[in-house]
């Protein structure tokens, strides 16, 4: 859109001169009156309609975000007013006595997301490296598609698989081993000691990790593939191995985009609902052990909202949604800024 | 033997093996999840699935009402979401391309694209369910449309910006007003890109469960009334999978298989459409 003539500028073209009802002046592009066929009044209306509708739709997207934030803030006001800061710091979620402290779900969300990233980041970077440098060229596209299909599988399917297959697998094969080895360590031991029941933060974190792998991997693959050939070739000419190229050339060059991709994955992990609801156990007890059932913000809302029978209960859950929305907004904004910085340094503009 | 050379080569080999293992890790879980869904689902698929309603505990039945509800809600979500998404995408790519509003909308849209869908469900609950006093299929459709719109905005914006400016200039030179240029020239040129976006969005909303929990809720019986709670596949899967009954588990797996097959087929179709555009 460089030099396209601004046909029928709003206001000018649409306004008929007094005494000449129905006759519309053409817009004067670039300040001189060119012999352009005057758009008839019939074409001026669709033009105005077109502008109003498209701009309106764009505004609607903006307004959605604002409306969601405001609506959650208003809905959660009662809980924030009643409990104040205690809503976040108290672990006392007592439905019967009307006490709602959201420390456990907040903690659960953060801990499961952290586990997810610990698993997903190295795996995603490995996949990105494999797909850009190592795999035979003919196999790259099919493997990339397969990894992206991981993102297409509905989260409720992850949940069912997690509940019926993965949690029992964790309970019988992984968690006893975790108990015996990591659980015996000093300092971090209590994190990994506990009943091997399969349902809990560790399982939920791993399932979340698998779910966010495709999001991080696909961005990482894009940016690693966009490292200028001159840089890579210079490194090759100096005798660098592929690992050294990644470590000393590609990763430093793409650092902000990789961090952006990780934040994108974090944003997904924080808000993921169904998969976590299945395997987290919906417990409101605080425990140190990662093997114990816990709760997350999204899972608490999914499990309890339709059962919430008092205004305060409902408001507390909406207040949780408000916190979740704000936190994911910040995380995703950071992701977007990091990715935009990378785009700029690559000379791509939007 | 050169020790430095050996160490560097060893580090390289280890990194390569780890990268291959990471890929195998991802593919292994994809295969495991798909195989589980297929094996359990195929065992539970029969003709009753498409002819009978969701049963009470301990009885046999099907998912007919859930399939119907899902299809209708998705169709309505497409009908609501596509015009809005295409309109906003047109604004971003055409008259608003370099404006501040466009920059803000792109930013916000990307965030909505990844925003927690359960919060959008709660939003529609506050917006529609509370004032109207009851759960409804309309509310469910609106929640799904909210998730569809950002996908369509993003893809139609990108597809329209891929149309060469020469085409716009040629159309303007013929004296076409902007709305005609968009409708008759640009949309035709960007058709497959916009279609990709809509299909991508449909794949996304078909599996969405969280936003339907407090909007469409569920309905055990046949109901075609969009103004009442409406059965839908994801929520039925959720409730039946969490239940202690074997028949319900079987139905949940059957629903899961059909849902997964549909979503994956759509995702692959999108890739084919996209590839057709590039070549």
TrEMBL record, chain A:
Top-rank taxon, per record: Bacteria
Membrane topology qualifier: Multi-pass membrane protein
Phylogenetic classification of the source organism: Bacteria, Pseudomonadati, Pseudomonadota, Alphaproteobacteria, Sphingomonadales
Function noted in UniProt: Part of the binding-protein-dependent transport system for phosphate; probably responsible for the translocation of the substrate across the membrane.
SUPFAM superfamilies, per database record: MetI-like
NCBIfam families reported in the protein's UniProt record: phosphate_pstC
Disulfide bond listed as a keyword: no
Keyword tags: Cell inner membrane, Cell membrane, Membrane, Phosphate transport, Transmembrane, Transmembrane helix, Transport
Species in which this protein is naturally found: Novosphingobium organovorum
Similarity comment: Belongs to the binding-protein-dependent transport system permease family. CysTW subfamily.
Transmembrane segments: 57-80, 100-131, 143-171, 191-217, 257-280, 317-339
Localisation per UniProt entry: Cell inner membrane; Cell membrane
Primary location class: membrane
Record Pfam families: BPD_transp_1
CDD domains linked to this entry: TM_PBP2
Official protein name in the record: Phosphate transport system permease protein
PROSITE patterns, alphabetized: ABC_TM1 (PS50928)
Domain ABC transmembrane type-1: 106-335
Automatic annotation (TrEMBL), chain B:
CDD domains referenced in this protein's UniProt entry, alphabetically: TM_PBP2
Location of this chain's protein in the cell: Cell inner membrane; Cell membrane
Species this protein is from: Novosphingobium organovorum
InterPro entries: MetI-like, MetI-like_sf, Phosphate_PstA, Phosphate_transprt_permease
Keyword flag Protein biosynthesis: no
Similarity comment: Belongs to the binding-protein-dependent transport system permease family. CysTW subfamily.
Protein name from the UniProt record: Phosphate transport system permease protein PstA
Keywords: Cell membrane, Membrane, Phosphate transport, Transmembrane, Transmembrane helix, Transport
Pfam families per record: BPD_transp_1
TM spans (from-to): 63-86, 107-129, 135-153, 185-205, 250-274
Its membrane topology: Multi-pass membrane protein
Principal subcellular localization: membrane
Domain ABC transmembrane type-1: start-end pairs: 67-270
Gene of this entry: pstA
